[in-house]
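Quick entry, no commentary yet.
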Amino acid sequence: MARQAHFSAPAPTPILYDRDGAFLAQLGHAEAGRTEYGYWVADPPPPRVGAATLALEDKRFWQHPGVDAAAVARAVWQHASGRGRSGASTIAMQVARLQNPRPRTLWAKAVEAGTAVALTWRYGHEGVLAQYLRLAPYGNGSHGIGHAARFYFDKPVADLSWPEIALLAAIPQAPGRMNPLHPAGLAAAIRRGQRILEALAADGTIPQADLPAARAQLAGTRLAPPPRRPDALPAILRLDKMARAALPDPANPLVRATLDLHLQASVEKMLRAHLAQWRDAGAQQSAVMVVRRDGREVLSDIGSAGEGSPGGAIDFSRAARSPGSTLKPFLYALALDRGVLRPDEVMQDRPDGAAGIGNADGFFLGPLLPRRALANSRNVPAAALLRRIGLHTAFDALRAYGLHDNQGPAERFGLSMAIGSLPSSLERLVRGYAMLADGGRASDLVWLRGAPAKPGQRLIGEDAARLVGLFLADPMARLPSFPRYGDSEYPFAVALKTGTSQGYRDAWTLAWSRDYVVGVWVGRADAGPMQGLSGARAAGSLANAILLTLYGVTRSDLTAGDFAPPAGRVAREVCADTGALGTTCPDRLTEWVAPQRPPAPAAADPVRLSITAPEPNSRIWRNPEVPEAVNRLVLKAESDPPVPQVVWLVDGAPVGTADPAKPFLWPMTPGAHRFQIRLPFAATASASVRVVVE
């Protein structure tokens, strides 16, 4: 009994609300196949609640030591004389039973009586009453007056009126029979509540003049249905542990999440509408996260398309998947930050630098500045850059950025780490892109309002992070791989990166604007392939719709503003294929360079290009006795002065790049064709040569 003469109670269970106070969920304790809520601290209990609770349950509570001898004697006499039964359990005895439930036997009653006396002696009458008001059952899984006030009336217990207090005080005697959410139970609770009001008026707690109005109000009580949990289960499950650990007040543990329920519903509607358009292409699932840049607050978190969809119970915002090309910006930022790369340095997108890695479109664009190499999402320059950084260095840096938690070895992923072999998740990517948006300062995402903010840690230099942001926000730099005026373009500044994993198994878009970071994933629950659904096509269109909705604009609206350039750098026009300062080359772009750059070199002599084989107007026959793969036409060219690379075009479309001094093999296709060569990203081109293939 000494062990039982201590107060014990389950931890308080929180009620979770969105950022504006809309109900999200109750987070209870699972016990014996049912869920219990409440157990909120009630110390000290409001005097009016205590008076109403004791009015019928334990009238001599303040006088007896935990056991009411007069009530026990009356109960024994009534039982022996056959004149009915009356309860003899005091509030202290009920506390003992609530803490340690036992079968209703005489021995159990004796143990409860002894425990009640010990509890009263140890904690005093006020403590016993407060413990009862924390543990007492109020029906529908609710425990404790504080939770019951919030559950039934959506108000703190201190704001309850006398009729509301009387109704709640009636329920613990028989929570099932007096369930106020059912008409018969509400009527029974009102009848007992009327007796409580009369007892309170009889002892002067309620003025007699106020009794009629209180009784009339109690008689007319109608309870609203309890709030229903919205369809945001993955987000709620994620918040459960955090909410329990961050209870602001054990007596009133209401927790505000950062989620915006209105936005959540809007994004979910858009997700389902877009997913319906992609189902014929094999898409099954999608996940979205929206984060406010300032403060990293999570405004929307949709982990799946919901019940009824394949894998609808899985939270795909946390699932590890192939990230496609979405890790490339971090490799560029790492290289820029460590001086491995300069923004005006030429990178090569050419076959001899591919190391077995090809581009998604099968073509090579030749020499590119980092801005275009990243914005065009070229695989070959990214793999070459990873080789320069070093596998181990990049692997460890990406882990430090929070983009993966693998332990290696880095060789397991190899250079394909740059194009999707290193698994990540939507949540990790959103956190990483928020770091880039914040100038390289890493910080955890915030899920609860008012939670203490952890100081951010700078993992990437601000100069490098801002440069990468400007690369990703430049729609002109995305040409020719991504067309203008599609889903990657906005009427306001947006930095974005798409990603598509091998076999179109995952489609990604990560984007940030002045105010928000948005992440979208589209794929299948079984990790199977989709039919041609890329990050730009599928995830990009949903991200575009979300950002336009967030700002309340359309594609035709114009909003001023741009991202801040790196401090200390100056804007200069540079040649797109050489990085040289000046305006003499035909293809130029504006880049932020270090101010100590030397002046532009003297203009070079113009380049003259020509095709030497085949001859114009040639008619060429394929050999029907050899495999199709062997039927190739040898193309030859000349350049004066020599250049390292030209782009071969057939019928106006690029088919590959090559050293003009070396032959280029073209798979022959029947019909009339025109051949031409040009300098990469320059207007200089040869005359076209017409050839007919039979």
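second:
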Amino acid sequence: MTDKNLASAGAAHRKAAAVRSRKISSALADIGKLPKVKNPKRREKCRQSLFEFLVTYFPNSTGLSPLSDDHRRVIDRIEYCIRHGGQFVNCVYRGFAKTTISENSILWALLYGLTRFAAVFAANEDKASEIIESIKRELQENDLLYEDFPEAIHAIRHLGNKAQRCISQTYRDHLTHIVWQSDCVVFPAIPGSPSSGAIIKASGLTAANNGLKHKTPDGVNLRPALIVIDDPQTPESAQSKVQCRKLLNIIKKSLLGSAGHFAKPACVVNATVMQPGDLIEQLMDHAVNPAWQAERIPMVRKFADAHKEWLGQYAELRNTYDPDVVGSRERAVAAANAYYLENRERLDAGCQVSWQSCYAQGEHSAIQHAYNLLIDNGADYFASECQNRPQPDEPDTTTLSTAAIAGKLRNLPRLVVPLDAQHVTCSVDVQQDLLFYAITAWGDDFTGHILDYGCYPQQRLALFTLGTANPKISDFHTGGVEAQIYAALDKLLPGLLATEYKREDGATLKIERLLVDSGWNSDIICQYTRQSPLAAIIMPSKGVGIGATRKPIAEYQKKPGWRIGNHWYINMPSKATRLLSFDSNWYKDFVHARLATPIGDKGCLTIYGSQPHNMLAEHLTAEYPVAVTALGRTVNEWKPRVGKPDNHLLDCVVGCAVAASLCGCELMRTVPKVAPRAAGQHPPRQRVQYLGW
């Protein structure tokens, strides 16, 4: 055979192989014949009732234990919303299975074609992804669903959980257009299927945007017909009035508005109240939000007639044990159980609980379970997590309110220095995703004025948290985390130090001292401050919470090379970089005292502009003082509030005050004159005391 013939034969062989490969690939991509519905009667019965669907098709979740009448009402509200629209809040206690009910209800709406587009929102992206993953698991592994909804699930199982197969999947030589992503599932386009092309999308609530839509392969734009919001709050956002207001605006404007003017919005919120007046309580306030219907469901509707005995003798048996002895706790629990079983009729009398099946292994009833939660975790926990009636925090008389701080205004434009100020200081709080900073002008007598504050990179939203930062440092700088922080500092600090701040009389001032908090990563902060050409102005700092049991800085023994000032000291650590350490408890007291000082008095701290600074105020009130007495002295030890809200700008303003002390600022008070002297006495001296605050 000639070379020409050999080449021709080879080409023919390759062509035939390619044809066979395409046929094999096509065969693999095609889902083949759909199985028949195994139980049409079961499927039709559950189409008529969401409750039947939940208890029938999900034997390991919503069908595992007998549901309560409270569950029935919640499920009926969800069904009504899916069929007819409306806005409903189901305010239920922890452990009610509200998230599972939400997930499975969405499947009911999609599988029966009652909605084509369902959008689910959670407190953040991670929680939303968990919901999508749970729904995907049911579609992949629930055999009962597969038996009765093969037109929807056969194609999904054919993917083998490999999203890359979506693009080529076919049915009867037509693409199914299926989507299988971490935040989105599109059901296969199957002729005659009620769920053909149906879509579910999940997102964090703060990432919701206007115009949420999905375009089908035939060019139709779908908008969400069903919106399910599951536990939209975090402990942090629930405590913040600003964030609650932001979330409420997102729900009203972005989500409910996405349905357009010609569709009745269908929205269900399933959640637990976290704080008095939080987002959920606002939605349930009919006078403020009349479009919403709501029910608050507690775990215990009526406590037992023997309530005192539960919290007395039973609680004593349960809690009397030696924590140092292994097995002692178990013996105490066993003794309490025996007491309960012996006196059950009397202890249960008069008690009404929401869910009779709600109790754990080792317990004997839902009533006992509820009282165990109350006894083990305390009244505050039980009121919030179980009764949906969180108790308000005790009034804090030692710090200003957020509103008072937000309105502490001097009515000067941003960056303008007051006439009575001689120093400008700056402090930077370093976090992995953002650099927060504050710039403050000070008089020699510690009268202060916040000229500016913000973060790098600058945020797109006026109200934000570190957890919702967009953009982040990593969006602008490459390399490892340390390299990114170094580059971010090198981008932010020279610009701050080059800025000239004009005083009211026309004089110009520059930042005299800039502190960089080294607590997050001391190595990279010290390296930057040591190598920077601005090292004469920049200094790394570290706040140390000196409590009542620790020696105050004033009693430290001064070492060679040290400098000790007003509750701060500078030493030379091993990295050959001078580090300023300060008592963070004392300076948080100091800053709040400055904020509490009336405008016009010496030592008052004000803020620029004429509009309230809500986010700054929230940072400044993110912690509260607890008076602790030990070793003969009482110290305010500052603690984060519930949910640990952002406190980074508080740290920045505190750093500015420390830097001002480093520049020589001192708070002065004149002691009142003493009584007139008697004859022959020397005239009294007028004393000037230099006080902490």
